[in-house]
């Protein structure tokens, strides 16, 4: 029986709408069982042609997460996470980027279900990816594109302002049948 069959559609949709990036965390560790549940969800994520092109490196060592935080323009928050999952992918092209995003979103939704905050980090340059590859001993045939930072959200610190969390109305982002219609 799927989650969608065991909870109301309204509850499932509310959970999907409420997912937000967390970038400030309490220092509490995440139980290994919870991390393994997230990895199991990741394992079942769909991929282009079912290639499952990923290898996931789980990092719980604070010093290594601090080093990862220095590996890109959008990675600084990793210095405060309880754990991170670095997503290394094999292959090239748009399907790899699609698979990366699909896996990250799925893990973030699962983390939210467990009461764990999460945020994505991007290793956007060849130099930053090489830095991550060297740090985590990732083989050359895998590209470490991103990481999912995990922890219990520190609600005493400011997160994104409400204006940044707002959404455009559907009328600005949706057309029916043809663009602009």
UniProtKB/TrEMBL annotation:
Stored Pfam families: Nitroreductase
InterPro entries hit by this protein: Nitroreductase, Nitroreductase-like
Keywords (A to Z) from UniProt: Membrane, Oxidoreductase, Transmembrane, Transmembrane helix
Domain Nitroreductase: 20-69
Molecular function terms from GO: oxidoreductase activity
SUPFAM superfamilies, sorted: FMN-dependent nitroreductase-like
Residues annotated as transmembrane: 66-89
Family label: Belongs to the nitroreductase family.
Protein name: Nitroreductase A
The species this protein was found in: Occultella aeris
